[in-house]
Each structure stands twice: as structure tokens, then as C-alpha cells.
Write a structure and sequence with these properties.
Elements: H1 19-39, H2 57-79
Helix pairs in contact: 1-2
Protein name: DUF3098 domain-containing protein
Pfam family, one: DUF3098
InterPro entries: DUF3098
């Protein structure tokens, strides 16, 4: 029997996204992490003492806004098509 040359193509390893997508993904992760860091703290060690610091602007408005902006950046990074060229 003769040996047949089989041209077996190995699947090329390509990333799903390109560099620009990953850049926006990491920026979005940074916003989300910063939002959760700003949201932390403000508690009290003694359960009988109320600390009104948990209701300040940073924890109620700023931190959740940063988390939502980060999630929006994540969606944009996923939907971004870097191959599209504007003329």
C-alpha cells in the first residue's frame, strides 16, 4: 500500500479579541475595582454605635457610578470591532 500525504492543518491559535479590545477590558476592570474599593469601609466595630459615615457621597453616589461606568466600558470593549476602518 502506498502512503498518502495527508495535509493536516493544525488549527491556528488566534485570540478572540485584539489589543484594543483588551485595553478597554482592562480599563473597565480598573473602574469596577476602583468603585468597589471606594465602596468599602465605613462600618463600626461596636454594633451598638451607629456610624453615619456609611451614607456619605463617596459610598452612595460615586462608587456605584464608577462600577456602572466600568460595566459600560466592558460592554463597549466586547462589541468593539477594531478591524472596521472609517473612511
Amino acid at each position: 500500500m502506498s502512503k498518502k500525504n495527508k495535509n493536516i492543518q493544525k488549527p491556528s491559535k488566534e485570540f478572540i479579541f485584539q489589543k484594543r479590545n483588551y485595553t478597554f477590558l482592562f480599563i473597565g476592570l480598573g473602574f469596577i475595582a476602583l468603585g468597589f474599593i471606594l465602596m468599602s469601609g465605613g462600618g463600626s466595630d461596636d454594633p451598638n454605635v451607629f456610624n453615619p459615615d456609611i451614607y456619605n457621597f463617596r459610598r452612595i453616589r460615586l462608587a456605584p457610578t464608577l462600577v456602572l461606568i466600568g460595566l459600560g466600558i466592558q460592554v463597549y470593549a466586547i462589541l468593539l470591532n477594531p478591524n472596521k476602518r472609517n473612511k
